[in-house]
Amino acid sequence: MFIKVPAQQIPLLWEHIKFAVVSADRIDERDLQNYLGNLLGDLLSDKAQCFVRMDEQRMLLAVVITRVMFDEMTGYRSLLIQCLYSFKPVSTDEWITNMNIVEAYAIKRGCKKVIAYSTNPRVFELAAELGFNERYRCFIKEV
């Protein structure tokens, strides 16, 4: 089952969400406290959204964090998949089903596109299988 977690239930899952984002987002240790504090605030105020996949026994299998944002490149609202983390391997068919739920949520929020960033090669493969196209790459240099 793949569901959107209501903001008031975020504290119940916070430790799992925190583990998922720290594992998936590769946040520098010096930025981690600010990142997690800002994320928690955004999830509690619905500026960011959390979707989870659970099995029949209600065991947590995956966490997806999204944000509705204005896409400067296109001029449209887009749904950003900020974090995608799976605690166990999942079939592509199941991800397709889950992506349909995310896409329906994006449409409901007035978004024209779903955007995802990642550094994980498995996410690259999955994104291609789900119909995503690569638009650009982002490079960062510390100064």
Quick overview of this protein structure:
38% of the residues lie in helices and 26% in strands. With 143 residues, the protein is an alpha+beta fold.
The rounded Rg comes to 15 Å
Terminal-residue CA separation: 44 Å
Instruction: State the total count of DSSP E strands.
Output: 5
Assigned CATH superfamily: Gcn5-related N-acetyltransferase (GNAT)
Please write the string of helix (H) and strand (E) elements: EHHEEEHEH
Work out the helicity level: 25-40%
What is the name of the CATH class?
A: Alpha Beta
Write the CATH architecture name.
Answer: 3-Layer(aba) Sandwich
CATH fold-level assignment: Aminopeptidase
Overall geometry:
globular
Q: Let me know the average pLDDT.
A: 89
Largest sheet features = 5 strands, mixed
Helical segment tally?
4
